[in-house]
Amino acid sequence: MGIAISLQRYLDGRAVAYDVLTHDQTKSSLATAHASAVPEANLAKGVLIRRKDGYLLAIVPASCQVQLNAVGHWLKQPVGLATEEEVNAIFGDCEPGSVPPIAGAYGLPAVMDDRLEGFNDIYFEGGDHRTLVHVSGREFHRLMANVPHAPVADRSH
To answer: What is the reported pTM?
Structure first.
């Protein structure tokens, strides 16, 4: 499949410099980092959160898990994980379970965990479980310029 069309159009429309890398199929962002020899902290993942008035994309490192209580505290409302069906409906041009962390490509509001700051390189799934998109840290932060930052994740291991 490669890079999802919504993501590709979004990146190209903003003249983002990116590379597309391939790897063996994986089932998790941590496995993707290992299969691609990418540091877990440099691999951004998206987690779709359900809130009372819609959805929010939490953008966190692969080495971390979203803390729903932290997201709820930040939003000042209860939240939960979106269902697999909800994720697949919103990310319809992606393989099931693949959630690119570029909220703007899917018209979603977002929050980015502070741990994604300061890297020279950032990687993320391109829409399937075999494709990674690589951007410079500068390009990633340009993409995230209007995304609020908050401590919404903890290390998963």
So the answer is: 0.93
